[in-house]
Batch of 3 targets.
Target 1
Amino acid sequence: MLTALKGNILEALSPDILGVHPNSYLVLENGAVVGIYPDLPENMAEASVEDYGDALILQSFADMHLHGPQYEFMGTGMDKPLLQWLESYAFPTEERYADPAYARDHYRILAEDLIRNGTTRVAMFSSLHTDSTLILMEELEKAGVTGYVGKVNMDRNAPPYLCETTEESEQETLRWLEASKAFTLVKPILTPRFAPSCTERLLAFLGRLKAERDLPVQSHLSENLGEIALVGELFPDCRQYWEVYDKYGLFDGRTLMAHCVHSDERERAAMKLRGVHPVHCASSNNSLMSGISPVAQMLREGQSVCLGSDVSGGTTLSMLRTMANSICAAKDRGSMMQDTAQVISIEQAYYMATSAGQSFMGYKTGFTAGERLHAVVLDDTGLPKLPNITLRERLIRAVYRLDDRHIRAVYSEGVRRL
Amino acid sequence: MLTALKGNILEALSPDILGVHPNSYLVLENGAVVGIYPDLPENMAEASVEDYGDALILQSFADMHLHGPQYEFMGTGMDKPLLQWLESYAFPTEERYADPAYARDHYRILAEDLIRNGTTRVAMFSSLHTDSTLILMEELEKAGVTGYVGKVNMDRNAPPYLCETTEESEQETLRWLEASKAFTLVKPILTPRFAPSCTERLLAFLGRLKAERDLPVQSHLSENLGEIALVGELFPDCRQYWEVYDKYGLFDGRTLMAHCVHSDERERAAMKLRGVHPVHCASSNNSLMSGISPVAQMLREGQSVCLGSDVSGGTTLSMLRTMANSICAAKDRGSMMQDTAQVISIEQAYYMATSAGQSFMGYKTGFTAGERLHAVVLDDTGLPKLPNITLRERLIRAVYRLDDRHIRAVYSEGVRRL
């Protein structure tokens, strides 16, 4: 069955190239992209057209780092330093997700809010609770959110009510992986919370599991200076933070590493060599004063940087706002260093918010033929009409001015979900 | 006539003290504040009560620096440096305000959007066009926005289509001041655009006018390094930027100076001595990469810092977002300097967004008895209920998460406007 979306189509073809198709047709066959055409080709004339007029049709968003159980307290505790924030907000809240009914109620809201904000792909941390993690996967899949969810592993340096024994962590991980087979759109991703929260035995177990089952992995890397010092103490045989993950086979092309704020040249070179995907989390880096990531530099080095809202160290679920926050953080870094080379472009922000995540998940970038449609229709037609404004300029404006009110439609896996 | 608003009342009593009145009555007599009471006193029992339930009742916002004619292109050109941005966006748009009908249409929208966002006090730049400036004042007054509007003076260093002769500028200023007498809520404020756009003769004229008629004044100060260098060239007899304004009597307790990003110790000491009010514009300082203002330092020095959206170097009209942007900018400065003393508190952000502007306008801070009510009702009851969350924490969360959708009522000069 042929269908088509008509509007102003914008693709993130590369970190530097925005594909611009004014007033064009995005043609689909059974939900998969056929191509983009200025006019509907004759042999596709029977396609049923959804005409979005002068609205913008973008790739939908990929939020490559967020914590599901933290969503409910987003925006609170933002005046606390990291440790106090974890103890007062993050950990006590995560504990409540031991209760599957509580988890169900909250994860349903999260899944719906993701779609409402145009996010159709995620890489998300759950809590350590297996059953609630499965509920999160189910609720995401029901709402049309695709991607990866991880049951968190923590067998040390966690509050007693959120700490597993190594055996429990291993067994529950296996049980969770088995039960995850029920899902088709949401897949499991191994999730050692971060190096300090896992014993070497647990990391070794996860590394073996990754190798045996070809699983992806997500964790945190070089988020703040205190954490880096702690890793140094806990793993004295590793010269740098990344080497802990690398030692256990958890550092390759199927790995997402959140933050990387303080990754120096050597650590960044290791990421590049291994094909690790850094996830830039501008909002939480700001809130928790972790530092400002050298994201422009990482992009210049050819790192495949993704964006993460990092709810709820981050203060917004909106990837539009997350793009704006990323641009703002880069400018602040540039201002303080008096170095305009720190700035990132709208092309780079849009690519990191969409195609970079697609790419991690094994999909082609942009709206590539054969891929099932993931798209969002952004209606900026209520904003002032400006003479000679380009579509690129409308994308910049959208990032600063639009929110979920302006998201008119969301497509995930070829299906309209909003 | 006695009336009362019931809800959780939050006052900005000083930059460090938040007045917190859970579930209380804000009693008014003919729109003027009588007091805040945990229970309705017996002798006020006849007051008709507007019950806002569990919502937050805040002072409404004072946006102490924005450019009326720039609102329409807010969010565009944010990837351009200052000069190119002025030439491509700001100046060509301002030119259109030569047409009073065009101005009327656009200023009506701006005035309504201000109220919708809870801003009831402003200090605003118009363009150089006298008639359109009067239209702006009229539209603000109609919508219930109070404060100051200035016809801009520019007799050099401006594009030809936006440059007055000195005589024109003087005569039109006098004509505008005369016609401004028609307004009661919106008052004129002298507005040399910035030192480089005015000849010394024009500055001297404005200084005399200020003294003769006891008028307030607003301008820009030390926004970016290029501008500071230009001032040095144009006014070789002035050692520092502020001395230009000071030389002509435009630098005292009735003066607003926008930005002050690069004001050093000496310039800040002069502001403090004269009682000049700096206006912090975090969003545009970021967008145009002017730098990050040392606002925490200025507050420590006892400067009466106000906040400005600086539409449209700034990307938002919302003062909630402007507060968030101010907190974020201070954290970015702190991160880059590894100095937590750069951070500002929610108390400081809220004070700068409300009471500081009230104070400049000659009103008492907070909800003081005798002052006509300026208030906004923020309904955060749709956000997750968190156990033991304090009203202060709800204010922090509101700044990050709420927008005009959550503004349930707005009062200006004792009258409900939304």
Note: Chain A touches chain B through 45 residues (CB under 8 Å).
Target 2
Amino acid sequence: MTSIRQTIENRPWVGWLLFLLTVGIVFLLGLLASSIVERRAETTAIAVPEGKFDAFEAVNEEFKDYYPREYQSWLQTADTGFRSMYGGNAMRDMLEEDPRLVVLWAGYAFSKDYSQGRGHSYAVTDIRNSLRTAAPMTPEDGPMPGTCWSCKSPDVPRMMAEIGPEAFYSKKWAALGHEVTNSIGCADCHDPATMNLRISRPGLVEAFERRGEDITKVSHQQMRSLVCAQCHVEYYFKGEGKYLTFPWDKGFTVEQMEEYYDSYAFSDWTHAISKAPMLKAQHPDYELYTMGIHARRDVACADCHMPYKSEGSQKFTDHHIQSPLNNIANSCQVCHREETEEIVASVYAHQQRVVETRIQAEDVIVKAHIEAGAAWEAGATETEMAPVLQLIRQAQWRWDYAAASHGAAFHAPVETLRVLSGAIARGQEARVELSRILSKYGKGLVAMPDISTKEKAQQYIGLDMPKLRAEKDEFLKTIVPEWIRQYESKGAEKSEPVAAQ
Amino acid sequence: MTSIRQTIENRPWVGWLLFLLTVGIVFLLGLLASSIVERRAETTAIAVPEGKFDAFEAVNEEFKDYYPREYQSWLQTADTGFRSMYGGNAMRDMLEEDPRLVVLWAGYAFSKDYSQGRGHSYAVTDIRNSLRTAAPMTPEDGPMPGTCWSCKSPDVPRMMAEIGPEAFYSKKWAALGHEVTNSIGCADCHDPATMNLRISRPGLVEAFERRGEDITKVSHQQMRSLVCAQCHVEYYFKGEGKYLTFPWDKGFTVEQMEEYYDSYAFSDWTHAISKAPMLKAQHPDYELYTMGIHARRDVACADCHMPYKSEGSQKFTDHHIQSPLNNIANSCQVCHREETEEIVASVYAHQQRVVETRIQAEDVIVKAHIEAGAAWEAGATETEMAPVLQLIRQAQWRWDYAAASHGAAFHAPVETLRVLSGAIARGQEARVELSRILSKYGKGLVAMPDISTKEKAQQYIGLDMPKLRAEKDEFLKTIVPEWIRQYESKGAEKSEPVAAQ
């Protein structure tokens, strides 16, 4: 038997074959290893000269040359095209799609105007345009406090650093119009000096503190969700100073937050029809996200909404923040091996079930408000109505917690449906009680008004929409241009005002 | 520069190194390839002599020597220990755990006795023991038809082959007691002649036919669920002949099956308190499974409930059919890389939310029955009550569809909660209406009875439990031993009767 060495000496091609085989295999292993570590790769940014930016540089354009890919993708938040079971693109008028909302929010500004938010790029434009902020003609005018600007712009941390959060919140919204100009961008989530992720808003830091947690100790992966949780959370305006506060002291669930609000006897408004002391849920996106499977598996907001992207040899975080359904290859399919169509179908299957249940809850609560209104008219007493109004408050809080949370049907469909079940049970319980009260005062079935369109519903609750719109138009024609002029006159270096879009 | 060949010739160890490296890498690749194909491995069974078994061999023990691993693991279905959020082991008395069930089923046999099923090994014992089958002292006696045996034994296909399904179903339950003796086993899912998977029950085949589908054309992977779907489904006893029928003609959802039942004006019983025409859901396990993510991903029942198992060099399907939570390493962790504790916690998180919502639905429907009873007593008319009774029927059908389905909170939590929301909405709607009717007849709040224990609830609905139990004891002492004696006397070759366990 010849030894391998002899074989190689006799037939040199055998040695070469072995060698080439080794090379080939090692090359493939290299590919494998590269693909494993690939996702850790980070882009090399162009170095920013030390001291170039102070900690509150608010002008997004300033970062353009140093982080070109992040900046260019961030610009795309102007494209709000999104894939959803509703189809469609751009701004959706939710009151038109679902006029029940008008009745549910009767007596509250949301009944005037509620549209699905567009991309971050429109944050400043859309809050100026909204009928909810009305038409303040002087800096001391208008229904809204400075707090309403809190999430709209990197000018907010800049201003808070200048005048302090208390002063910021307690001013009128119109008093800050000439200062808050750059739309949501770089300095909202990054420290301009280092570009590290940074919590720029006091609300989240304070909520952590009250829970005995230290937000400076969290991991980078947690920060990739917490920068979003500065704004995508449930919050309220506390006290006279309208201090932006997260109701997180007892926990994140709908019951724990309700307990928090109840302990303050807090209500956002008194319902115009039922007189119930209402809570308006903002958008408990982060809270519900924590109750879903993706959070359980430590998937951060940015993993799906800002996935990694390659351009040539550069890998970077896509700053076109959007629905992952717009970008399934880079988001879902990094982990899930299903076909795009199947992934979409899976998501819609959950959304459809949640939407059906949400509408069921709305039908119930609308009826409860209207029947409560009829009971008051029939002569019901405060004592008789008190338990009913509590049930209506509880029902609508549950519905709104589920309905207002962006992506709830995806992030945590099981918890969302549990919450909606509670809304239906309590709303109907109020109606059982109302049925008894109405009978006592000789009333039978309460006729339901025609609220089949936004216009009819707004007319039913007594809104003078032409007047509100005319006032807004005047405000947009006179006040907003003046705000922009004032901002621009402060210096050419802060030259990225948002024109009307 | 020296060539590689020269290098190898000068320093032989370099050649050896390259060679050994190749060997090592190829070995590792072999391991990888093996692990990839490993899951396709199938066990080699000991060949069964041709003609050894006929197509309806019902005695499980007969297969022992040919399929020792499958047989031994099947024997373990006598161990019903299971991991669940309830903890515990063995048989759970559901009426004791949740006495609301007694009221929900008032007038129906389930109010007498309803326990969580034990392993397949107990199927025959437990149906003999159940108070639901009562105490027939002659073959023509008793409340239940032969149909009740349908899922309990491989003696069923044997008998159906002998006398035909119509005759089997339309006999009295007691008339078949001496024939149905072997507990659920081999021939229920396998053709004894070939051991191929086989649909042995006509109900499923007929349901497929009525849907225009051919069950003989399905894939092996589908069969790994469909053999379970012979029994783990919603079904009813159709017409005078008590013909076992799946209500699948319009689809699998709670609404589609309701439409099917409504189209026949079918009801299982009239509720003893509310007089509502009720539907009893059996266990729509397969139906709800098809609406969950595991079915979407083509995971079959057997993949989790009968995962592959290795013993030495043999790989086989574990026939200890049980909760996958008992066997996480072989079931869940084949696909899911999470730690056991985390997997369990994820499952419980869904179960807890579903159970909470289920209990909420029960509370509502119990009240509706009792308030309806009070309305009848107060003098309400058939016309007034008709819409209320329909709502109660719809509510309880939804609740029962979700509650009776084994593993619903795992298989399809989102659909389950959608269904339960519908139950709550309709149950409460009935109560809104009842509130009006009761007021009309001068009744205020209806006092709720004390149903805090099974005993109190059974007393409330007027069951004479000591009498029922005494009759059952007599039946078990006299009739069942006679059934076993008759079976044994038919021949030693059919010698695996089930003794009392």
Note: Chain B touches chain A through 50 residues (CB under 8 Å).
Target 3
Amino acid sequence: MKKKTTIGLIQTKVFENQNKNLENSIKKIKNAARRNAKIICLPELFLSPYFCQTENHSKFKLAEKIPGPITNIFCNLAKELSVILMISLFEKKTSGFYHNTSIVINENGKIVSKYRKMHIPDDPGYYEKFYFTPGDLGFKSINTNHGKIGSLVCWDQWFPEAARLTALKGAEILFYPTAIGWHPKERKKFGNSQLNAWITMQRSHAIANGVFVAAINRIGLEKVKNKKIQFWGNSMIIDPSGNIIKQSKSNKEEILICDIDFRKVENTRQHWPFLRDRRIDYYKGLLKNPEDA
Amino acid sequence: MKKKTTIGLIQTKVFENQNKNLENSIKKIKNAARRNAKIICLPELFLSPYFCQTENHSKFKLAEKIPGPITNIFCNLAKELSVILMISLFEKKTSGFYHNTSIVINENGKIVSKYRKMHIPDDPGYYEKFYFTPGDLGFKSINTNHGKIGSLVCWDQWFPEAARLTALKGAEILFYPTAIGWHPKERKKFGNSQLNAWITMQRSHAIANGVFVAAINRIGLEKVKNKKIQFWGNSMIIDPSGNIIKQSKSNKEEILICDIDFRKVENTRQHWPFLRDRRIDYYKGLLKNPEDA
């Protein structure tokens, strides 16, 4: 296992045309690889505008089989560039059954992990429960040649349980492909507080678990009929003490390249030994709902 | 159940003389009550300097029976002022068996809850495992006439599990009596990052659970032989969206008085419905240790 690696987070705008998104992402992946990134992660569902703004049956045609033609493209690319790719896709498992899925492709072009988003939101403008069945594969850590990594997806980032379980399985970097933004009408009143809460939660996962956290968001204003989301960017990498070590702007396409020293994980956990002191003998209530715990 | 209450957090310096600490705390409790606080909380182990800076057998004589002479004083005071008091004590359960305990006394002067600190630190200068057996009563929420409240203690604040379990049991304000500070030698290099991590974790508990969080710390430089801790104050109250609504300085005795509107809990949880989406069917690994999960 290597002691260091370099990761690349690709913060993009997303266009109406899927081929354009595909070309754009391939170009940016190549750019990140040239800059020495060994693990490259793209935002949630980066191949299309965020279709969950409305409940629209016609959008199911965007779903992909895994493996399938789209994953084949990225598998070939990973092999060509000799990098690890983390790719978020609208997965068609079978007829009438769909997931929000993140895969890890290794530097030999093989899909080595599939994670199906476990926590599914349903809020005005984020109608994901309409499209996605909650994940059925549990939480994942993958041992790669460039480090032990875990992939979670967007809404998962509000759940300490998801981060904890992925870290307990061994992951030393938690990746969160994301699609989150402001409702333009709410932005003035709540925008700062919302963005700040989002950042705070991810820093807390780094601290509580002594791991690196990488969040990768899209940017841009996307409109679907009279609905709008201003995706807020702010892709970032957080060290195991909770310090933000790289951060993108809210309105700019950007490729964040960041060196990761895995020795910081062990060092932080020796100085802040939270894993040592968990009271697993008294945590059964975590498997229950409010008032039943 | 009332829809609003007022809480009072007493950020104090602690003196060598226990009687002086007792008098000081009674005076400040009366001050908070005059200012309409209905739930008043003091810092962790506020009756003595933080003796866990060293392992010293003579300090076991500081331990109290609960109920006992000290709790009787606070029970009478709670009744006299008609307030709820949250009091942190070094508890002697029985011969050779001690806890770091927080009690809730209601406005009739009755002890209505006892919480024994579940997560016990052991770090240079914080040798708590020498003094305290980890708690054996689990996590607690108490229905009072002034709101549903939970008491956790200091090191617990680094564990998302503790906050989650207390919230799942119904608590709408999580209180953290605390004794945390800087090692003066480390302060320049790590001080900001440490304080920031501490604040971040508590904000994350508020956000993840949609609850108010109140942290109550001591201030002052305490020396034991060649050991020193500069307690960093920064007592604070955080709303269910993670915003800090009141905060003390790091070097000043202060009584934070804060109005709490419990309707914010329900409102926040409707807008950020995290409790709705927990995957209790996939959380069993939380009852395991690293690599076993």
Note: The two ends of chain B are 40 Å apart (CA to CA).
